[in-house]
Design goal:
It contains ten helices and twelve strands. By secondary structure, it is an alpha+beta fold. The protein has two domains: about 5-200, Jelly Rolls (Sandwich); about 210-280. Helix 4 (about 160-170) packs antiparallel against helix 5. Mean pLDDT is about 75; it is low at about 205-215 and about 250-299.
Length: about 300
């Protein structure tokens, strides 16, 4: 019998107030190793949550009173650098050790790295939603991703609402079996890669002057010039650029700019990673050997 993906639950209702923050800290280790404290000294934290864990990703929702989570220098010694995305019904004050403090309004999303020393203060009681994905998995698709990003993503950021809706769709699913769990984790990583690939602030600042960046700029122009060509393919782009298809396949969607001004929608160089995104109206798509058997979106 196949096993469902692990689901971790917690509620502090029946716990002694003095032990709640330690129980929350131990519970959150499945998501992130942080120090937990009430926002007001000597106040008690109320917390309940569900957390689903698969290889390469974890997500869930929590109902929490006002409090803080802190990723300290001591905790950074664990070597974790996964990406965290958090949205909440209350404002979140974000205090990186290096860099300016900022406030994430309700409905916006804070993206940060577990490789960064940071404090987050949840300014009230309400629901919060969290997603953790492997930074290594995302950086393989977006090589220029900053090593320890932290920023506010406004609610209108392209693909952000789709990402959160997808985690809610997955919430009741048992995801029984290794294949289903691996696929869910991979899809979430790919969706985050598409999200951060379209956010220039998350890219390394010094990458724009390299030879690779110049080649990618030329490749982008080539693709945009042939978007209406029914025979547009990885091999055709490689032939015009006088490189091998293997080399050209390294031109990932994020590198070529997944939101070019000419079409206002993602351009897939080799394949569209997420089936749901591939079939969204307005998404450009062309055939290559790796996606030839996939269903085509409506014209």
């Amino acid at each position: 019998m196949t096993q469902a993906a692990p689901l971790f639950k917690i509620s502090t209702t029946d716990l002694a107030p003095s032990s709640r923050k330690y129980a929350i800290r131990d519970y959150l280790e499945e998501m992130m190793r942080v120090e937990v404290a009430p926002l007001v000294t000597d106040a008690f934290i109320h917390y309940s949550a569900n957390l689903r864990v698969v290889p390469g990703a974890a997500w869930g929702e929590a109902y929490t009173s006002a409090g803080t989570t802190r990723r300290s220098t001591t905790l950074l010694s664990d070597g974790q650098d996964d990406l965290m995305l958090i949205t909440a019904q209350m404002p979140i004050t974000v205090q990186p050790r290096t860099g300016p403090e900022f406030v994430v309004p309700p409905g916006d999303t804070v993206l940060s790295s577990q490789g960064r020393e940071i404090l987050m203060a949840f300014q009230g009681t309400g629901y919060a939603y969290c997603l953790r994905v492997s930074r290594r998995g995302v950086s393989q698709m977006v090589p220029r991703l900053s090593s320890a990003p932290v920023m506010n993503l406004p609610r209108q950021t392209p693909l952000l609402s789709l990402l959160w809706n997808y985690t809610r769709l997955l919430a009741p699913e048992p995801l029984a079996g290794e294949n289903a769990q691996l696929m869910a984790g991979r899809q979430l990583q790919e969706m985050v890669a598409l999200l951060v690939g379209g956010t220039p602030e998350l890219m390394d600042a010094n990458a724009s002057g390299t030879l690779a960046a110049a080649r990618l700029k030329i490749a982008r122009a080539d693709i945009e010039a042939h978007l209406d060509d029914a025979n547009l393919s990885l091999e055709a782009v490689a032939a015009r650029q006088k490189v091998s298809p293997a080399t050209c396949s390294g031109y990932s969607p994020a590198k070529v700019n997944p939101f070019p001004a000419c079409c206002g929608a993602p351009v897939w160089i080799e394949r569209a990673p997420c089936w749901k995104i591939r079939t969204m109206p307005g998404v450009r798509y062309f055939q290559s050997p790796s996606n030839a058997a996939l269903p085509k979106p409506p014209p």
